[in-house]
């Protein structure tokens, strides 16, 4: 037989047995036993942290003695992270302040005018839209591509 006829015969066998059900026994599985799923899921046991043998009250003090302080508060304070106060916001120059005012002021005027049902002249509508576009363009142009002046020689991450 030629290799082509062997291949055709294999395909015929595959097509003929396409709808057949598997009659394999579970012991004849083609994977190792370590891959089998157990019938009952394994349970994880978490041990509580070990306490010192002297106890929280000291070696010569009985364990049932009352403690004046609340131990839960100390644990929370010890594990609670309080971030440092944020640095102050940078001071903005006048052109940047005007650009932000135009960016938000134009749409805000249009929103108030629509909500109050004001009659808007053509020049007022044009000015509001132009202020929005101009403020956006001014902020993008002032953004710049260079790193900040105080960044130093290394712009990497700080831990």
UniProtKB/TrEMBL annotation:
Basic and acidic residues bias locations: 41-50
Region (Disordered) location: 1-92
Residues passing through the membrane, by range: 98-116, 122-141
Keywords: Membrane, Transmembrane, Transmembrane helix
Compositional bias ranges of the Acidic residues kind: 61-78
Protein name stated in the entry: Uncharacterized protein
Lineage: Bacteria, Bacillati, Actinomycetota, Actinomycetes, Streptosporangiales
